[in-house]
Amino acid sequence: MKISLGRQSILLLGVNGLFVLAGALSGTFLNVYLWKSRPDYAMLGWFTVSQQLAIGLTFWIAGKWVKEHNKMSALRLGTALSGLFYMTVLWVGSSAVDWIWPLGILLGCALGLFWIAFNVVYFEITDRDNRDLFNGWVGLLGSMTGIIGPWFSGLVISRMTDNTGYRLIFTVSLVIYVIAVVFSFFLKKRKVSGTYRWSEPWLQLSKPHSPWRPLALGLFAQGVREGVFAFLIALLVYVATAQEYKLGQFSLITSAVALVSYWAAGKWFKPQYRAKGMLIGAILLLVVLMPLLWKVTYGTLLIMGIGSAFAMPLYILPMISAGFDMMGTSGENVEKRVELVVLRELSLMIGRLFGLGVFILTVMNEPSLRTLTWLIIILGAFPLIGWVFMRKMLRHTEGKGTTSS
């Protein structure tokens, strides 16, 4: 049977692609922009903490709006606030380092609103059969924007004096966010049903033998790595080369590899391969970090980046698809899909905050490059821990028949 995506799925992919493109253009260099104003690892760690706290709380609070009112309004507001964030950065300029917490909270609220709406709509318009295909396309579009965006930004920034290039790129991102808002109006307004239960994430985890417990622990482990790697690797590339263009080149190469690997995963990676695929991906994600123990250079970072881009779909697609499949296992779970999306995000948030806490404590006490390298290796082992938590659940669901969402 041929698996395909509907018109609404394609439109949602388009809005997601524009949102991710705007983030790829500016987000890759945002921390470099702050670093050039104040070279302080801990400052960037706190900036990321403020974002993660805001994302998690926004998911939880906005869940009521998304479930009982208009989830499309949440998606549009999140996109608009992302544009407002870059408008604010343009306004405050190099003084942005003095407004780390307010800026981080603004960006976190924007991301939280967009992604809770996206995740709920994504669940509603996909099912178990085409979910891996949709996820593959999300990864593919993310890789394509990762190729174009940072390379273009790095080229522009490196050829313009002072911070002129940064201001231009932030302005371009602002325009793209506006276009994404316009595109979102072509998405149909989704039905609302039921009453939002604030305590549902905790109730689900408190049930004896709850299948959400191993998933939450797996997501926690994913978040531990993700929270730090999301900003540190790009920053290390800049620190190692002192060239924005090199960072753009790094993103171009690694995203090109990710484009191919996500395309292949979307085409051939089936539910029955999830447990083995996730294990192989987790091992590879750790192995490719080992060259950094020799020396942190552009070359060793590139080896790590290429290896991670190749392995990430094997690890991340089972994590995403397994969670959303669980939401469709019963009518009761489908009814609670918003609360379960919140549970998923809170699990990731706690993991990210844990990883960031370890990072901040480390750089405040011993901010040497060697210490950072060992921290990267330790945090990079957490996907294996995630697989340990998830393996039984993945094996249990392998080979099961289609379950409609």
Q: Main traits of this protein?
A:
405 residues, Growth Hormone, Chain: A, 15 helices, 0% strand, mainly alpha, globular
Rg estimate, integer Å? 20 Å
Helical content stands at: over 70%
CATH superfamily membership: MFS general substrate transporter like domains
- Unreliable runs: 401-405
Total individual domains: 1
Write a brief structural summary.
With about 400 residues, this protein is an all-alpha fold. The chain contains 15 helices and no strands. The protein has helices at about 5-35, 40-70, 70-90, 100-125, 130-160, 165-185, 200-205, 210-240, 245-270, 275-285, 300-325, 330-335, 335-365, 370-380, 380-395.
Question: What are the SSEs and their pairings?
Answer:
Layout: H1 7-37, H2 41-68, H3 71-92, H4 100-125, H5 131-159, H6 164-184, H7 200-206, H8 212-241, H9 244-268, H10 274-287, H11 298-327, H12 331-335, H13 337-365, H14 369-380, H15 382-397
Helix pairs in contact: 1-4, 1-5, 1-6, 1-8, 2-3, 2-4, 2-13, 3-4, 3-6, 4-13, 5-6, 5-9, 5-11, 8-9, 8-11, 8-13, 8-15, 9-11, 10-11, 10-15, 11-15, 13-14
